[in-house]
Amino acid sequence: MTSSTHSPLPPVCKHGPAGVFTSALRRLVNNPEFSSDVKFVVGKERQEVFAHRCILACRCEVFHGMFSRQPQTGRHTDLLESPVVLSEVQPEVFLAVIEFLYTNCVTLNNYIALEVLTSAVEYGLDDLRKLCVEFITDTLKVENVCEAMQEIVKTRGFHELSDLALVPILQSDSLLIDELELLCAVREWAHVNSVVLEQPLPEVVKDAVKELRLALLSPDELTRLEKDNHKDSLVPVEQIAAAWKFHALKKANTGARPHLLQRRKGTRPRDHHRYLNLQHK
């Protein structure tokens, strides 16, 4: 009687409920108990944030490199008494990054989404970056962005906006920013994305630049724009010519899109604006 031989079955990985695991790890976020062994001092408020080096290091190459360079004293108190200082990051933004590293989830709102996006790029967290882009695209209303636009353009997260996200923002009358400042922000955005996408700058910015309201600029500002434009060809020559024509005729060109002659909430008044015959929104 011959004994039959059976090939061993390959191992199968079975997953339990992800929500239970996520909830359990969320209790460790910024919890000084349970052997937290690294302390961050975050923002101008110098808020203390506690974490576990093993979790941060295995989830993020940037933290892995940071902790690998630190001396291994072996003493828990020494590690906590030598905090990592992050003075340029908002505590709420950093805590969102920490939450993601522990749980693979992130809690976002209108005020921190772009800054969390910036941090995701800086820390090399591509999945977090995708979650932020999804939130900005699907949840953040154009009006919310517009109300905070003057602050947003100062952040590195502004450069991470796609042209599809930027264009509807530039179409809004509600922007609390002057057109000259907006022009500078779009120019910087275009230069950054031209390098990242490895595409010519005019190609990168072709849709966004159409929404700049050049007729709101004064003659001196248009002259400076022309000089800058010789260097990078940001704005089509025809678009600048249309703005000069408005100054010459004191009226809109035939066929001009009406919203391009509309002052935004943040537009600073200039003498020629009386020819617009429009009220601030």
Descriptive overview:
By secondary structure, the protein is mostly helical. It has 14 helices and three strands. It has helices at residues 18-26, 53-59, 61-69, 76-81, 91-103, 113-122, 126-138, 142-147, 149-152, 163-170, 179-197, 201-205, 219-232, 237-249, and strands at residues 38-42, 47-51, 84-86. The longest helix has 19 residues, at 179-197.
Properties at a glance:
three-stranded mixed beta sheet; 48% helix; 3 strands; mainly alpha; 281 residues; elongated
Describe what is shown at a glance:
With 281 residues, this protein is mostly helical. It has helices at 18-26, 53-59, 61-69, 76-81, 91-103, 113-122, 126-138, 142-147, 149-152, 163-170, 179-197, 201-205, 219-232, 237-249; strands spanning 38-42, 47-51, 84-86. Helix 2 (53-59) crosses helix 3 (61-69), helix 5 crosses helix 6 (113-122) and helix 6 packs antiparallel against helix 7.
Topology of this structure?
Layout: H1 18-26, E1 38-42, E2 47-51, H2 53-59, H3 61-69, H4 76-81, E3 84-86, H5 91-103, H6 113-122, H7 126-138, H8 142-147, H9 149-152, H10 163-170, H11 179-197, H12 201-205, H13 219-232, H14 237-249
Helix pairs in contact: 2-3, 5-6, 6-7
